[in-house]
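Might I ask for a little of your time on a matter of protein folding? The record follows directly beneath this note:
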Amino acid sequence: MAMGLFTVLRDRNARVYMAGVTISGFGDSAMLLAAGVWVKELTGSNSLAALVGFCSWAPALAGPFIGTLADRVRRRTLLIATSLALAAVMTTPLAVRSSQDVWLLFAVLTMVGAGTVLMDAAETALIASAVPRDLRGDFNGLVRTAIESNKLIGPLIGAALFTVLGGPTVALLDALSFLLGAAAFSLIRVREPAPAHRPPRNWTAETAEGIRCLWGHPVLRSLVVAGGCAMAASSLSSTATYALLDIGLHRPAAFAGVLNSVQGLGSIVSGLAAGALLRRMPPRALSAVGLALFTLGALARLTGLVPLVLAGSLLIGLGLPWPLISALTMVQKETPDELLGRVAATANTLLFAPTGLALLAGTAMVAVLDYRVQLLMAGALGLTAALLLAVTARAPRRRDPAEPGADDRRRHAYGGDA
């Protein structure tokens, strides 16, 4: 495991890209928490504070449509330009003074959400050009580790800055993180050809082409669907946390921080190990193992015993990243470059859009059902997804893009010149 990670970190492009993702992701994590608190303080409304998270998540539903732009321009240029644009957007919250101005926060977070969807598509496509093929599993694992680390640290710093210096300071921190991210992306050295010239086509047709590419690939389809099930199951489990603490463990709500920290630790370890595991087992197998670990973790939370609940949180943290890393790594390896932005955006929508929908469903369920029913449903969904991978494991293997004849197969599969 360590050798693969060190090999990735010796690669200049990987180091620079990691710096950009980590810095910009840190600013977003801090701002998202601070924005919710900011809206709550200005309006006194819990529902409006909750709307903050929805605004940042909603653009993911339009991921395939937004991601089409990543196949029309050079990806590195797009990353830099989008980061600079978002840095400018993040100065808008400086004008927020009263409850009458909170719409500015909602507008800003929606634009940042759309920009993040676009950047995720461009980043996934750029990695295929900037990072060697045999390092992408390790690299994606490191990126997931950075994301999980930001989730642990960013909100704490965002809350502290908001308490001491106020919301505008956190907004400026996020703007600075986008500027530093743009600077890091500008240092990536990659020979990225101009997008291939194509006959004029409308945006919807190009978006549909990316969707067909992903859905017509049996391996990618099953991995992405399994990853989406994992994220939905995670949302169902997380929305039961406070009921678990109150009814099951008889612990204060603040104990959720302990559970989140243990889960975050598991996710960090999981991300670091992902690359080495992908070299030793097929992506389907790693995804299924991750889903099985998640299922065990969700069931452990049913016991109401603190040691087992903590162990369950660790298992959930260990298991969740592997379906995501397996799916995204295979998207990078199996998708033609000219379609990679659209396919990556479609994959991200199928992976992460269920999170928001399941959060809404879980919030409603926890109000009327015993929390253990919700945890059972989360475990059942994780187990079902693992079984789905096992059932579809005998689908015909797609030829490696580097193998002779792969281009001809892609043209035939996707209905035209690829």
Summary: Residues 395-418 have pLDDT under 50 and may be disordered.
